[in-house]
Amino acid sequence: MDDPVRPRELSRELHAIWTRHLPGTVASIDCIGDAGRAILFGELDDAKRAAAVECAHQLVGVSAAYGCRELAQLARDAERLLTGDVATGNGRLLVALANRMNAALDLG
Fold first, then answer.
1. Which bin fits 106, alpha (ψ -120 to 50), beta or left (φ > 0)?
2. Count of CB atoms within 10 A of residue 70's CB?
3. Are 77 and 56 in contact (CB under 8 A)?
4. Which among 17, 38, 68, 101 could bridge 43 via Cys, Cβ 3.0 to 4.6 Å?
5. Are 32 and 97 in contact (CB under 8 A)?
């Protein structure tokens, strides 16, 4: 029988996985922010919108899996905005959400 995984070892493994996926997480947040700016400039096309919806959806799952509740909720809010009627106000909200997601990552 395999040895049970000790909590400290599991924590190190999860941290290593999270770190490995961090660039993709940051890119997803950037995609959402870019969609918000595209809305503000009247430049959000279907492809950009679909990409941002997918990024937000993936962020919800990844964040929840790692216990990042705040990031998951912010991504859920972004996904909801992106799948609704796109108005200029939503662009500002998406940019603000992306900024809050970056802050939730606490990379600084």
1. left
2. 13
3. no
4. 38
5. yes
Alpha-carbon radius of gyration of the chain: 16
> What residue type is 32 in one-letter code?
I
Distance CA 40, CA 88 (A): 5
Cβ count near 54 (within 10 Å): 14
Task: Please report the beta strands in 1-108, taking only residues with DSSP state E, as ranges in sequence order.
Answer: none
The model's pLDDT over 26-75, given as tens digits with 9 standing for 90+, comes to 999 999 999 999 999 999 999 999 999 999 999 999 888 888 899 999 99
Query: CB-based contacts of 49: which residues, under 8 Å, 6+ apart?
Result: 35, 82, 86
Measuring CA to CA, how many Å separate 52 from each of 10, 13, 15, 85? 32, 29, 26, 14
